[in-house]
Amino acid sequence: MASSTTSTSCEACKCVDGNMGKEEKRKYELIGYDELPEWLKDNEFIHGYYRCEWPMKETILSIFSIHNETLNVWSHLVGFLLFLCLTIFTAMVIPMDGSNKSGSIATWGDLVDMANVTVALRHDALAACLLLPPSAAAAGLSEDGQQIWPPNTSSSSLFHHRHAIQIQDHRLQDIGGTTAVDPVTRWPLFAYLAGAMVCLLTSSACHLLLCHSEHAAYLTLRLDYAGIAALIAASFYPLSYYTFLCHPSTQRLYMASITFLGAAAATASLLPAFQAPRLRPLRAALFSAMGASGVVPIAHKLVIYGATAPGAVASARFEALMGACYGVGVVVYAARVPERWAPGRFDLVGHSHQLFHLFVVAGAYAHYLAGLEYLKWRDFDKCY
Ligand SMILES: [Zn+2]
C-alpha cells in the first residue's frame, strides 16, 4: 500500500543496487527526520537513524540492529523479562493458599521461614532475577532460619515483622504441636505482575513494529494504550484487596471501580473514533485520572491503618516511590529533554523516551515491592 507521494511514504529509505535485469534488491537504510512521512514524525529533536516502511521481516530483525528505537525496544523487553522472572520467583518462593510444598498444612516452622523469606525476598528478588546462584536468595538466612542479612537490619521493617509474628502468635490455632497458618491469597499480586508484563511487552512490540507501515502504527499504538490501561488498573488490585481485606464492601467498591475504568480506557484505546488527534487531551486525561485516583485508596489506607499497621505505611512508601518514578518519567517525556538542548546528539542513546522507559520499569518494580509489603502484612494480620 505504498503511496507515490513523498508526504506519506519514505522512498528515500530504499535504494536500488543498480543491477539492471536482475531482480531488484533493496537495501534498507536509516534516514533522517526530514525524509519521514508525516505519520512517522514525532520528535523533531531526534534528527537521524529512523527506519521507515521496512518489510515486516526486516522490521522484526531490526531488533538486533542499531537505530533510534533500539534502546526503546530493549528497555521494555528487558523489563518484561524481569517481571516474568519476578512472577516465577514469587510463585516458587512464597507458599500458596495455606499449603506448603508437600501439600500439607503449613506449620509454625514454615511460618517463621516464610516470614524470613518474605523479608529477604525484597532484597534478593533482583539478584535472583539476574540468575545468581540459588544460594544467593537464601543468603539472608542462617541455618536455623533466622534473618542475618542484610547486616544492621535491625531495621524497623524486620522489627515490625517479628513484632507482627509475636502479635499474631496468640491468634494461631495449635494443632498437634504444630501451628496452622493461612497465608493470604496471592492472586492480586499476580494480577499486577500480569498487567505489568502486558504493558511492557506491548510497548516493546509497538516500538519495534510501528515503522513498518501506517497501518502497523495504527494497530500497535492502540495496543500500547490498552497495555497502559492494563498496568494502571492492575496496579490497584494489591492496594485495594490487601488494604481493605477486613472491609469487604469497600474492597469491592475500589476493585469494581478500577476494573470499570480500566476496561473503559482499554476499550476507548481500541476504538478508531477515539484516536482522532483532537481527542489526544481526552485520552491523556483519562489515563492521568486513572493513575492519580490511586491517591484516594492510599490516603484511605493511611487513615484506617497508618497508626496501627506498619505494613500499611511501608507499602505506602513504595507506592509514593512508584508515583515519583512515573511522575518524573512523564515530565521528562513531555519536556523532551535532554534532546531539546542538543538536537541530534541523543538520537541513539539518552533521549527522553528511553529515560521515560527506565522510570516506568523502576516505578513498576517499586510497586512490586509494595506488593511484598502487603503480603508481609496480611499473611499475619487478617480479620478476627
Ligand atoms: Zn515507549
From TrEMBL:
Ranges that cross the membrane: 73-94, 189-210, 225-246, 253-274, 286-304, 316-335, 355-375
One of the protein's GO biological processes: response to hormone
The keyword Chaperone appears for this protein: no
Coiled-coil regions, chain positions: none
Keyword Zinc set for record: yes
Residues annotated as binding Zn(2+): H207, H353, H357
Protein name: Heptahelical transmembrane protein 4
Organism in which the protein naturally occurs: Eleusine coracana subsp. coracana
Membrane topology: Multi-pass membrane protein
This protein's GO CC annotations: membrane
Main localization of the protein described in the UniProt heading: membrane
Gene behind this protein: ga12330
Protein keywords: Membrane, Metal-binding, Transmembrane, Transmembrane helix, Zinc
Gene Ontology molecular function: metal ion binding; signaling receptor activity
Subcellular location: Membrane
InterPro entries registered for this protein in UniProt: AdipoR/HlyIII-related
